[in-house]
Specification:
The protein is mostly helical. The protein has helices spanning 3-17, 20-40, 46-69, 73-89, 96-110, 118-129, 135-146. It comes from Secundilactobacillus silagei JCM 19001.
C-alpha cells in the first residue's frame, strides 16, 4: 500500500474516531505531499515523499524544542503527539551506533583524514542516510570522527 493510500485510510479512521490531532497531522502531511507534487510537476517517488516527511518531522521537532525552551509544556505535549504520528509514516530512524558505523565506513571510502574533508564526507554520507537519521546527529558524528 502506498503512502497516499495509507494516509487516506488513516484519515478515514481518524474521522470515525473523532481524533482531532490525527486528523490535523494527516491533513497537513497530505497537503505537504500535494504541494510538493504540484511544485515538482509530477507524482512523487519514494525519495521525494521521504523528503517531505522528513521536513514535516524536522519542523515539529524544532518547534517542540523552542516551546520547551520557553516553558510551554502544554504546546510541547501537543507536538509530542504530532511527532509520534509523523514518525509512524517515516522510516525507522537509525540509532547513533548505526549512524556512526555508516559514517565510519564512508570516511574510509572517501579517504577523509581531517576536517578539511568534512564536506566530501557529508556529501557522500547523507544520501545513504536520507530520512533514516537526523542531519544534526550525522553532522556531529562526522565532526567527531574527523577531529580525531
Amino acid at each position: 500500500m502506498s503512502l497516499s493510500d495509507t494516509l487516506t485510510e488513516d484519515l478515514k479512521t481518524a474521522m470515525k474516531a473523532r481524533d482531532k490531532v490525527a486528523l490535523n497531522v494527516i491533513r497537513m502531511i497530505k497537503t505537504s505531499l500535494t504541494n510538493e507534487r504540484i511544485k515538482l510537476g509530477h507524482d512523487l517517488n519514494d525519495d521525494e515523499q521521504l523528503t517531505v516527511l522528513s521536513r514535516e518531522l524536522k519542523q515539529r521537532k524544532e518547534s517542540r524544542q523552542e516551546f520547551a525552551d520557553a516553558g510551554r509544556q502544554d504546546l510541547v505535549d501537543g507536538l509530542d503527539a504530532e511527532i509520534k504520528l509523523v514518525e509512524k509514516y517515516a522510516p525507522k530512524q537509525l540509532s547513533e551506533d548505526e549512524v556512526k558505523k555508516i559514517v565510519t565506513d564512508t570516511v574510509s571510502e572517501v579517504g577523509a583524514s581531517s576536517m578539511a574533508d568534512f564536506g566530501k564526507v557529508m556529501g557522500s554520507v547523507m544520501p545513504k542516510l536520507k530520512g533514516r537519521a537526523d542531519g544534526s546527529i550525522v553532522n556531529k558524528t562526522v565532526k567527531s570522527l574527523l577531529s580525531k
